[in-house]
Design a protein that fits this description.
Layout lengths: L12 E5 L6 E5 L6 E6 L48 E3 L5 E3 L21
Antiparallel strand pairs: 1-2, 2-3, 4-5
Protein name: Neprosin PEP catalytic domain-containing protein
Organism: Panicum miliaceum
Length: 120
């Protein structure tokens, strides 16, 4: 997500459930007009129903060439700014936001649980 698109240095995206169709939508942008970047049909996510019991964030970079693809913030691994997420907020069905507390459970790993391929 390119933070320059929103006139600040933050990345913005969110996923929400549509009450009318029951689909899960992923949108980007909060401080500006959000736009749709992905849709997960209700028929694909049958175990979710109308709510999510937990939320997981992750990412990876892949390349078709032998040269490694860039990933991260551009800082070396020993820098405090490498590979970080901050200011994450949850938005409920009423539009109310709540921040994640530092005391809430967090799990970090390097497993690939689901692989999505977007053809070009």
């Amino acid at each position: 997500v390119n933070p320059d698109s929103y006139g600040d240095s933050k990345s913005h995206f969110f996923v929400h459930w549509t009450d009318s169709a029951g689909d899960w939508l992923m949108r980007i942008g909060f401080d500006s007009r959000p736009y749709l970047i992905g849709r997960f049909p209700k028929s694909l996510l049958t175990s979710l129903g109308d709510k999510a019991d937990n939320i997981r964030l992750g990412g990876f970079v892949a390349t078709r060439t032998t040269q490694l693809a860039p990933m991260g913030s551009g800082f070396l691994p020993d820098n405090a700014k490498s590979a970080s997420l901050s200011n994450i907020q949850l938005i409920d069905q009423n539009g109310k936001t709540s921040k994640l507390d530092r005391g809430q459970p967090a799990d970090m790993n390097d497993r690939i649980e689901h692989l999505f391929c977007i053809p070009d």
